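lol ok so funny story. i was supposed to be doing the assay writeup but got distracted and ended up predicting the structure for this chain instead. priorities right. anyway since i did it might as well share w the group, maybe its usefull for someone
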Amino acid sequence: MANVLTNLAADIYKAADIVGRELVGVIPSMTINAGSEGAAFGDTVRAAVTSQPTLNEAYNPSMTIPEGDDQTVLNKTMTIDRVANVQIPWTGEDIKHVSNGAGYETIYGDQLAQAMRTITNKIESHAALTLSLGASRAIGTAGTTPFGSNFDEIAELRQVLVDNGMPLDGQATVAMNSSAGTKLRNLAQLQKVNEAGGEELLRRGELLNLQGLMLKESNGIANHVKGTATAGRTNNAAGVAVGATVIPLENITAGATGYKAGDVITFAADAVNKYVVEVGLAAGAAGNITIAAPGLRVALPDNNTVTVLENYAGNVAFHRAAAELVIRPPAQPFGGDAAVDRMTIQDPFSGVVYEIAVYKGYGKVMFDVTTFYAAKVWKPDFVATLLG
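and the output, tada:
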Protein backbone atom coordinates (compact mmCIF):
# COMPACT_ATOMS: atom_id res chain seq x y z
CA MET A 1 0.00 0.00 0.00
CA ALA A 2 2.93 2.40 0.57
CA ASN A 3 3.22 3.19 -3.14
CA VAL A 4 -0.49 3.53 -3.98
CA LEU A 5 -0.33 7.25 -4.71
CA THR A 6 2.90 6.92 -6.66
CA ASN A 7 1.25 4.38 -8.95
CA LEU A 8 -1.78 6.65 -9.41
CA ALA A 9 0.11 9.94 -9.72
CA ALA A 10 -0.81 10.34 -13.39
CA ASP A 11 -4.52 10.08 -12.55
CA ILE A 12 -4.12 12.56 -9.70
CA TYR A 13 -2.46 15.26 -11.81
CA LYS A 14 -4.88 14.66 -14.67
CA ALA A 15 -7.79 15.19 -12.28
CA ALA A 16 -6.26 18.43 -10.98
CA ASP A 17 -5.76 19.65 -14.53
CA ILE A 18 -9.41 18.99 -15.44
CA VAL A 19 -10.78 20.76 -12.38
CA GLY A 20 -8.51 23.77 -12.82
CA ARG A 21 -9.96 24.42 -16.27
CA GLU A 22 -13.59 24.67 -15.19
CA LEU A 23 -15.39 27.96 -14.37
CA VAL A 24 -12.86 29.04 -11.77
CA GLY A 25 -12.39 32.77 -12.34
CA VAL A 26 -11.95 34.23 -8.87
CA ILE A 27 -9.25 32.03 -7.31
CA PRO A 28 -6.52 32.54 -9.96
CA SER A 29 -7.22 36.29 -10.02
CA MET A 30 -6.53 36.82 -6.30
CA THR A 31 -3.25 37.00 -4.44
CA ILE A 32 -2.61 33.32 -3.67
CA ASN A 33 -0.74 32.41 -0.50
CA ALA A 34 -0.31 28.68 -1.02
CA GLY A 35 2.30 26.16 0.01
CA SER A 36 2.93 22.53 0.80
CA GLU A 37 3.85 23.16 4.44
CA GLY A 38 1.05 21.97 6.68
CA ALA A 39 -0.99 24.45 8.73
CA ALA A 40 -3.06 24.03 11.86
CA PHE A 41 -6.75 24.84 11.70
CA GLY A 42 -7.09 28.25 13.36
CA ASP A 43 -3.55 29.41 12.49
CA THR A 44 -3.09 33.15 12.02
CA VAL A 45 -1.61 34.47 8.78
CA ARG A 46 -0.16 37.97 8.74
CA ALA A 47 0.03 40.47 5.89
CA ALA A 48 1.75 43.85 5.77
CA VAL A 49 -0.37 46.64 4.26
CA THR A 50 1.14 50.09 3.69
CA SER A 51 -0.89 53.19 4.49
CA GLN A 52 -1.10 56.50 2.64
CA PRO A 53 2.10 58.55 3.18
CA THR A 54 2.22 62.20 4.24
CA LEU A 55 2.53 64.62 1.34
CA ASN A 56 4.92 67.52 1.99
CA GLU A 57 4.17 70.72 0.08
CA ALA A 58 7.01 72.82 1.50
CA TYR A 59 10.63 72.96 0.35
CA ASN A 60 13.09 74.23 2.94
CA PRO A 61 16.79 74.03 1.99
CA SER A 62 18.97 73.28 4.99
CA MET A 63 22.36 71.92 6.01
CA THR A 64 20.48 69.44 8.20
CA ILE A 65 19.00 66.37 6.58
CA PRO A 66 15.27 66.14 7.38
CA GLU A 67 14.14 63.34 9.65
CA GLY A 68 11.34 62.44 7.28
CA ASP A 69 7.84 61.37 8.18
CA ASP A 70 7.19 58.09 9.94
CA GLN A 71 5.61 55.48 7.71
CA THR A 72 2.89 53.26 9.11
CA VAL A 73 2.85 49.64 7.98
CA LEU A 74 -0.32 47.93 9.14
CA ASN A 75 0.08 44.35 10.31
CA LYS A 76 -3.22 42.73 9.41
CA THR A 77 -4.16 39.15 10.14
CA MET A 78 -6.57 36.49 9.04
CA THR A 79 -7.35 33.08 10.45
CA ILE A 80 -7.30 29.80 8.57
CA ASP A 81 -10.83 28.92 9.60
CA ARG A 82 -12.21 26.77 6.80
CA VAL A 83 -11.67 23.18 5.77
CA ALA A 84 -12.79 21.31 2.66
CA ASN A 85 -12.58 17.53 2.88
CA VAL A 86 -13.80 14.64 0.72
CA GLN A 87 -13.42 10.98 1.74
CA ILE A 88 -13.49 8.13 -0.80
CA PRO A 89 -13.79 4.64 0.76
CA TRP A 90 -13.06 1.39 -1.10
CA THR A 91 -13.52 -2.20 0.01
CA GLY A 92 -12.16 -5.34 -1.58
CA GLU A 93 -15.65 -6.09 -2.83
CA ASP A 94 -15.84 -2.68 -4.48
CA ILE A 95 -12.59 -3.26 -6.35
CA LYS A 96 -13.71 -6.73 -7.41
CA HIS A 97 -17.05 -5.43 -8.68
CA VAL A 98 -15.46 -2.81 -10.94
CA SER A 99 -12.67 -5.03 -12.24
CA ASN A 100 -15.03 -6.41 -14.88
CA GLY A 101 -15.80 -2.91 -16.18
CA ALA A 102 -13.83 0.31 -16.47
CA GLY A 103 -11.44 -0.79 -13.77
CA TYR A 104 -10.40 0.48 -10.39
CA GLU A 105 -7.82 3.00 -11.60
CA THR A 106 -10.19 4.65 -14.08
CA ILE A 107 -13.02 4.99 -11.58
CA TYR A 108 -10.61 6.16 -8.89
CA GLY A 109 -9.39 8.94 -11.21
CA ASP A 110 -13.00 10.01 -11.83
CA GLN A 111 -13.74 10.00 -8.11
CA LEU A 112 -10.64 12.05 -7.43
CA ALA A 113 -11.66 14.57 -10.09
CA GLN A 114 -15.06 14.87 -8.42
CA ALA A 115 -13.40 15.37 -5.02
CA MET A 116 -11.14 18.12 -6.34
CA ARG A 117 -14.04 19.68 -8.21
CA THR A 118 -16.12 19.81 -5.03
CA ILE A 119 -13.27 21.35 -3.01
CA THR A 120 -12.35 23.87 -5.70
CA ASN A 121 -15.95 24.97 -6.20
CA LYS A 122 -16.37 25.48 -2.45
CA ILE A 123 -13.24 27.64 -2.26
CA GLU A 124 -14.28 29.56 -5.39
CA SER A 125 -17.71 30.30 -3.86
CA HIS A 126 -16.19 31.43 -0.57
CA ALA A 127 -13.65 33.67 -2.32
CA ALA A 128 -16.32 35.26 -4.54
CA LEU A 129 -18.62 35.90 -1.57
CA THR A 130 -15.76 37.38 0.48
CA LEU A 131 -14.99 39.83 -2.32
CA SER A 132 -18.63 40.74 -2.85
CA LEU A 133 -19.20 41.41 0.86
CA GLY A 134 -16.05 43.53 1.01
CA ALA A 135 -16.78 45.73 -2.00
CA SER A 136 -16.53 49.51 -1.78
CA ARG A 137 -19.47 50.29 -4.03
CA ALA A 138 -21.81 48.67 -6.54
CA ILE A 139 -22.98 49.48 -10.04
CA GLY A 140 -25.78 48.11 -12.20
CA THR A 141 -29.40 47.23 -11.47
CA ALA A 142 -30.17 44.75 -8.70
CA GLY A 143 -32.07 41.75 -10.06
CA THR A 144 -31.22 42.48 -13.71
CA THR A 145 -28.48 40.65 -15.61
CA PRO A 146 -25.94 43.18 -16.92
CA PHE A 147 -24.89 43.67 -20.55
CA GLY A 148 -28.44 43.57 -21.87
CA SER A 149 -27.66 45.86 -24.82
CA ASN A 150 -24.08 47.11 -24.33
CA PHE A 151 -21.09 46.77 -22.05
CA ASP A 152 -21.37 50.18 -20.37
CA GLU A 153 -21.16 48.44 -17.00
CA ILE A 154 -17.49 47.63 -17.69
CA ALA A 155 -16.71 51.34 -18.04
CA GLU A 156 -18.67 52.10 -14.86
CA LEU A 157 -16.80 49.43 -12.89
CA ARG A 158 -13.52 50.80 -14.17
CA GLN A 159 -14.51 54.30 -13.09
CA VAL A 160 -15.35 53.18 -9.55
CA LEU A 161 -12.05 51.35 -9.15
CA VAL A 162 -9.93 54.08 -10.75
CA ASP A 163 -11.62 56.79 -8.68
CA ASN A 164 -10.69 54.72 -5.62
CA GLY A 165 -7.03 54.77 -6.66
CA MET A 166 -6.67 51.32 -8.22
CA PRO A 167 -3.57 51.05 -10.43
CA LEU A 168 -4.09 50.31 -14.12
CA ASP A 169 -1.48 47.59 -14.38
CA GLY A 170 -3.44 44.83 -16.09
CA GLN A 171 -4.19 42.91 -12.88
CA ALA A 172 -7.88 43.79 -12.46
CA THR A 173 -10.57 41.18 -13.14
CA VAL A 174 -14.33 41.11 -13.53
CA ALA A 175 -15.66 37.74 -12.36
CA MET A 176 -19.23 37.10 -13.47
CA ASN A 177 -21.75 34.28 -13.53
CA SER A 178 -22.60 32.47 -16.74
CA SER A 179 -25.79 34.53 -17.22
CA ALA A 180 -23.78 37.74 -17.45
CA GLY A 181 -21.19 35.96 -19.61
CA THR A 182 -23.89 34.84 -22.03
CA LYS A 183 -25.31 38.36 -22.31
CA LEU A 184 -21.84 39.66 -23.07
CA ARG A 185 -21.25 37.03 -25.75
CA ASN A 186 -24.54 37.93 -27.40
CA LEU A 187 -23.61 41.59 -27.92
CA ALA A 188 -23.39 42.23 -31.64
CA GLN A 189 -20.34 44.49 -31.38
CA LEU A 190 -18.34 41.72 -29.70
CA GLN A 191 -19.39 39.05 -32.18
CA LYS A 192 -17.97 41.01 -35.11
CA VAL A 193 -14.28 40.28 -35.46
CA ASN A 194 -13.51 43.68 -36.97
CA GLU A 195 -15.16 45.48 -34.03
CA ALA A 196 -14.12 43.10 -31.24
CA GLY A 197 -10.46 43.18 -32.28
CA GLY A 198 -10.13 39.39 -32.37
CA GLU A 199 -11.96 36.17 -33.12
CA GLU A 200 -11.49 34.45 -29.75
CA LEU A 201 -15.04 35.15 -28.57
CA LEU A 202 -16.72 34.32 -31.87
CA ARG A 203 -14.76 31.11 -32.59
CA ARG A 204 -14.01 29.76 -29.12
CA GLY A 205 -16.38 31.63 -26.79
CA GLU A 206 -13.47 33.19 -24.88
CA LEU A 207 -14.33 36.47 -23.18
CA LEU A 208 -12.04 39.27 -24.31
CA ASN A 209 -10.42 41.85 -22.04
CA LEU A 210 -12.34 45.10 -22.12
CA GLN A 211 -11.09 48.56 -21.11
CA GLY A 212 -8.17 47.19 -19.13
CA LEU A 213 -10.19 44.62 -17.18
CA MET A 214 -9.82 40.86 -17.59
CA LEU A 215 -13.21 39.16 -17.98
CA LYS A 216 -13.71 35.73 -16.43
CA GLU A 217 -16.67 33.52 -15.60
CA SER A 218 -17.11 31.84 -12.24
CA ASN A 219 -19.47 29.18 -10.97
CA GLY A 220 -19.03 30.62 -7.48
CA ILE A 221 -20.98 33.85 -7.89
CA ALA A 222 -23.63 33.91 -5.15
CA ASN A 223 -27.11 35.38 -5.06
CA HIS A 224 -27.63 37.82 -2.19
CA VAL A 225 -30.99 37.97 -0.41
CA LYS A 226 -31.44 41.41 1.10
CA GLY A 227 -32.26 42.06 4.74
CA THR A 228 -35.68 43.09 5.97
CA ALA A 229 -34.81 46.54 7.36
CA THR A 230 -36.87 49.50 6.11
CA ALA A 231 -37.50 53.15 6.95
CA GLY A 232 -33.98 53.89 8.24
CA ARG A 233 -32.48 57.38 8.18
CA THR A 234 -29.18 58.97 9.20
CA ASN A 235 -28.87 59.97 12.85
CA ASN A 236 -26.29 62.69 13.38
CA ALA A 237 -27.15 66.35 13.91
CA ALA A 238 -23.90 67.37 12.21
CA GLY A 239 -24.52 65.06 9.29
CA VAL A 240 -22.17 62.31 8.04
CA ALA A 241 -18.97 63.44 6.36
CA VAL A 242 -17.36 62.35 3.10
CA GLY A 243 -15.15 59.32 3.75
CA ALA A 244 -17.16 58.08 6.72
CA THR A 245 -17.56 54.30 6.90
CA VAL A 246 -19.66 54.07 10.07
CA ILE A 247 -23.18 55.32 9.38
CA PRO A 248 -25.45 55.99 12.41
CA LEU A 249 -29.10 55.24 11.68
CA GLU A 250 -32.42 55.63 13.47
CA ASN A 251 -36.13 55.10 12.82
CA ILE A 252 -35.36 51.56 11.61
CA THR A 253 -37.98 48.88 11.13
CA ALA A 254 -35.62 45.95 11.40
CA GLY A 255 -37.94 43.04 10.69
CA ALA A 256 -36.51 39.52 10.93
CA THR A 257 -32.95 40.14 9.69
CA GLY A 258 -32.42 43.92 9.71
CA TYR A 259 -29.54 45.24 7.61
CA LYS A 260 -27.37 42.36 6.39
CA ALA A 261 -23.75 42.32 5.30
CA GLY A 262 -23.88 42.47 1.51
CA ASP A 263 -27.00 44.65 1.32
CA VAL A 264 -26.64 47.38 -1.30
CA ILE A 265 -27.96 50.71 -0.11
CA THR A 266 -28.51 54.23 -1.42
CA PHE A 267 -29.13 57.54 0.33
CA ALA A 268 -31.62 60.21 -0.68
CA ALA A 269 -28.89 62.88 -0.75
CA ASP A 270 -26.63 60.79 -3.01
CA ALA A 271 -28.29 59.91 -6.28
CA VAL A 272 -25.14 58.45 -7.86
CA ASN A 273 -23.47 56.00 -5.52
CA LYS A 274 -24.56 52.57 -4.33
CA TYR A 275 -22.78 51.31 -1.21
CA VAL A 276 -22.28 47.76 0.04
CA VAL A 277 -22.95 47.09 3.74
CA GLU A 278 -19.87 45.49 5.30
CA VAL A 279 -21.22 45.17 8.87
CA GLY A 280 -24.98 45.02 9.25
CA LEU A 281 -27.43 45.70 12.06
CA ALA A 282 -29.61 42.73 12.88
CA ALA A 283 -32.09 44.32 15.29
CA GLY A 284 -33.12 47.54 16.99
CA ALA A 285 -34.67 50.84 15.93
CA ALA A 286 -31.30 52.62 15.97
CA GLY A 287 -27.62 51.75 15.59
CA ASN A 288 -24.68 51.78 13.21
CA ILE A 289 -23.98 50.05 9.95
CA THR A 290 -20.55 49.99 8.31
CA ILE A 291 -19.66 50.39 4.66
CA ALA A 292 -16.22 49.60 3.23
CA ALA A 293 -13.45 52.07 2.46
CA PRO A 294 -13.16 54.62 0.98
CA GLY A 295 -16.56 55.32 2.52
CA LEU A 296 -19.11 57.95 1.57
CA ARG A 297 -18.47 59.91 -1.61
CA VAL A 298 -21.07 62.56 -0.73
CA ALA A 299 -21.74 64.16 2.66
CA LEU A 300 -25.14 63.23 4.11
CA PRO A 301 -27.39 65.50 6.17
CA ASP A 302 -29.18 64.37 9.29
CA ASN A 303 -32.45 62.43 8.81
CA ASN A 304 -31.46 61.33 5.31
CA THR A 305 -33.40 58.27 4.14
CA VAL A 306 -31.56 55.04 3.36
CA THR A 307 -32.99 52.52 0.87
CA VAL A 308 -32.03 48.85 0.54
CA LEU A 309 -31.93 47.67 -3.08
CA GLU A 310 -33.39 44.36 -4.27
CA ASN A 311 -31.82 40.88 -4.23
CA TYR A 312 -28.94 40.49 -6.67
CA ALA A 313 -26.23 38.22 -8.08
CA GLY A 314 -22.85 39.36 -6.75
CA ASN A 315 -20.64 39.62 -9.81
CA VAL A 316 -17.46 41.35 -8.71
CA ALA A 317 -14.58 43.42 -10.10
CA PHE A 318 -11.32 43.53 -8.18
CA HIS A 319 -7.57 44.03 -8.39
CA ARG A 320 -5.27 41.13 -7.53
CA ALA A 321 -3.83 43.11 -4.61
CA ALA A 322 -7.28 43.70 -3.11
CA ALA A 323 -7.68 40.29 -1.49
CA GLU A 324 -5.67 37.27 -0.44
CA LEU A 325 -6.52 33.58 -0.47
CA VAL A 326 -4.55 31.33 1.88
CA ILE A 327 -4.49 27.61 1.02
CA ARG A 328 -2.64 24.98 3.02
CA PRO A 329 -2.68 21.22 3.59
CA PRO A 330 -3.39 20.15 7.19
CA ALA A 331 -0.44 19.83 9.57
CA GLN A 332 0.46 16.30 10.64
CA PRO A 333 1.62 15.08 14.07
CA PHE A 334 5.26 14.25 14.68
CA GLY A 335 5.97 10.95 12.96
CA GLY A 336 2.76 11.15 10.91
CA ASP A 337 -0.68 9.73 11.51
CA ALA A 338 -2.19 6.41 10.42
CA ALA A 339 -1.94 7.19 6.70
CA VAL A 340 0.12 4.67 4.74
CA ASP A 341 0.79 7.14 1.92
CA ARG A 342 0.41 10.88 1.44
CA MET A 343 0.86 13.32 -1.45
CA THR A 344 0.46 17.11 -1.70
CA ILE A 345 -0.20 18.61 -5.14
CA GLN A 346 -0.95 22.11 -6.41
CA ASP A 347 -2.91 22.88 -9.52
CA PRO A 348 -0.79 25.33 -11.56
CA PHE A 349 -3.85 27.12 -12.96
CA SER A 350 -6.06 27.75 -9.93
CA GLY A 351 -3.34 27.59 -7.26
CA VAL A 352 -5.41 25.25 -5.06
CA VAL A 353 -3.36 22.86 -2.93
CA TYR A 354 -4.77 19.40 -2.25
CA GLU A 355 -3.43 16.84 0.20
CA ILE A 356 -4.34 13.26 -0.65
CA ALA A 357 -3.83 10.57 1.98
CA VAL A 358 -4.49 6.82 1.97
CA TYR A 359 -5.72 5.09 5.14
CA LYS A 360 -5.76 1.29 5.41
CA GLY A 361 -8.29 -0.39 7.68
CA TYR A 362 -9.85 -3.81 8.14
CA GLY A 363 -10.91 -4.90 4.66
CA LYS A 364 -11.21 -1.29 3.64
CA VAL A 365 -9.12 1.56 2.24
CA MET A 366 -10.02 5.25 2.33
CA PHE A 367 -8.64 8.04 0.15
CA ASP A 368 -8.85 11.41 1.93
CA VAL A 369 -8.61 14.76 0.09
CA THR A 370 -8.26 17.81 2.35
CA THR A 371 -7.55 21.54 2.05
CA PHE A 372 -7.45 24.30 4.70
CA TYR A 373 -8.22 27.79 3.40
CA ALA A 374 -9.24 31.36 4.22
CA ALA A 375 -9.93 34.51 2.20
CA LYS A 376 -9.90 38.17 3.15
CA VAL A 377 -10.24 41.55 1.48
CA TRP A 378 -7.33 43.82 2.44
CA LYS A 379 -8.16 46.79 0.20
CA PRO A 380 -11.92 47.21 -0.35
CA ASP A 381 -11.14 50.35 -2.36
CA PHE A 382 -10.06 48.02 -5.16
CA VAL A 383 -13.28 45.95 -5.15
CA ALA A 384 -16.65 46.78 -6.72
CA THR A 385 -19.81 44.72 -7.11
CA LEU A 386 -21.53 44.35 -10.47
CA LEU A 387 -25.19 43.78 -9.66
CA GLY A 388 -26.97 41.04 -11.55
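The mean pLDDT is 86. Residues 104-133 form the longest helix (30 residues).
back to the writeup now i swear
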